[in-house]
Amino acid sequence: MRNTFFLCLVLLISISSNGQERFLTVTSKDSIDQLPRYRTSLGANLKLNGYYDVYGGLQESETFNIGSINVFGTDDTSSLNMDLYQSQIKWETQYILKNGDPVKAMVEVDFWGGNGHLRLRKAYVETKHWQIGQNWNNFGDEELWPNILEWEGPPSGVWIRTPHIKYINHFNNINWVYELSIAAPITDYSRYGELEPLVEDTYQNTPDITAALSYRKNWGHIRFVSLLRKVNYKLDGEFDDFVGYGFGLSGIYKKNLNSFQFQITGGKGIAAYMTTISGFGYDGYPTVDGGFNATPAYGGWMSYEYFFSPKLHSNVVIGYTNFKLDNVKRFILTDDSENTDLYAEGQVNNTHYYVLFNVLYDAFERMTFGLELDYGVKELEAKGFVNNQYLDIHENRNAMRISFGFMFYF
Q1: Domain CATH number, residue 41
Q2: Distance CA 253, CA 306 (A)
Q3: What is the C-alpha separation between 319 and 299, in angstroms, rounded?
Q4: Taking a C-beta distance cutoff of 8 angstroms, is the pair 403, 50 a contact?
Q5: Which band of pLDDT confidence, cut at 50, 70 and 90, is reported for residue 8?
Q6: What pLDDT, on the 0 to 100 scale, is given for residue 14?
């Protein structure tokens, strides 16, 4: 029964991500438990990414990243862009051992490495209890993704891929599955221009540790996750570290073709894992008293997909993210005319709102066309002393994008 459960789990993930068999698939003639002894396939997911920015300052962003909005900007020039850089190539192999245990291996790349260059997405080997290589980080939920054209995803979603070693098992009740992992450490506290002059990057020596517990049924699953990490940094020539931790709750409910998904994430020092604020350096910051704080951040998203007919379906997605910097030593507020430093007792509150609606049409087998409306708001509140003068600043800016394109896989 255990072997059957894990084999079905591997197949379920494979089928849910591919939908149908690849055109270029080779299977063995011999079988175990009525499944081919091995199966290997090579395929591609082609995606046309078209987007028309109505307004809002994301004209140079290929994804609808609300965190990239400059709230002091005034350029609302519309722009139209198209590319196929989000297309993917996947080589996947599954091998059944004589005892019935599955072994799965995958290599997947896309063209998101800059100017159409290849980028490694996944490369891992998975057995009955182990997954070793690069795949979706265990702090997220790899079976979740709203059926959308926009590729950034809603705020606070966790879709980061890292090299890791993950252990998978279940309790006496096979509906309860737990996963433990150690992952390559991520540094994300010195890239953001507002903080970078004070902090230097340094070597990391501790892996990020995650634990997850899922309850699975035919209707979907509920999943609870946790994260613990230690991040080293260098401030004013001195080495030190801070601890980050996070928790998350996610799930999916399916009824017929329709589905509801959600993900809630929160913690301190985990901005590197959260969509729209990952990569900006918000994991930690120096304080006015000479310390270094892990940044509190939280948020979530939910989506609902409804099928009007077997070919026509629509998605609604909403999302929210918030993070705060209290008593930050330095934060640079930027507008069109000057750079201003926010000093002692500085406080910064950053909030993102996200709404999406689309209509998708499955014109024929393996081919989907879509039209989508993306809308987001970024709010910035900053209080503190600038040149010995107290300022209380409230700025916000919204952005609207129309995404369009097609998805075809073979």
Answers
A1: 2.40.160.10
A2: 12
A3: 8
A4: yes
A5: very low
A6: 40
* Residues 153 and 321: beta-carbon distance below 8 Å: no
d(CA 111, CA 132) in angstroms, rounded, equals: 24
Q: What is the pLDDT of residues 318-362, one digit of tens each?
A: 999 999 999 888 777 665 445 556 665 689 999 999 999 999 999
Phi, psi (degrees; rounded to nearest 5) at 191: -95, -20
CA distances from 163 to 146, 185, 284 (A): 24, 9, 23
**3-class SS at 87?**
coil
Taking the whole predicted model, whether its pTM rises above 0.85 is answered as yes
The answer to whether the CB of 248 falls within 8 A of the CB of 212 is no
| DSSP symbols for 237-271 | TEEEEEEEEEEEEEEEEEETTEEEEEEEEEEES-G
Q: What is the pLDDT of residues 77-101, one digit of tens each?
A: 999 999 999 999 999 999 998 888 8
Residue in this structure with the two tokens 């070693």, named with its chain if needed? 165
Could you tell me the end-to-end alpha-carbon distance of the chain, in angstroms, rounded to an integer?
Answer: 33
Taking all residues of the chain, what is their mean pLDDT, rounded to a whole number?
A: 88
Gap between the Cα atoms of 129 and 125, Å rounded: 11
Note down the domain range covering 17.
2-409
Mean pLDDT of the region 54-83: 91
Question: What total of structural domains would you count in the chain?
Answer: 1
**Nearest C-alpha neighbor of 197 from the set 323, 72, 281:** 281
Residues 6+ away with beta carbon under 8 Å from 409: 18, 19, 22, 43, 44, 45, 46, 366
Q: Where do we find the tokens 């506290």?
A: 189
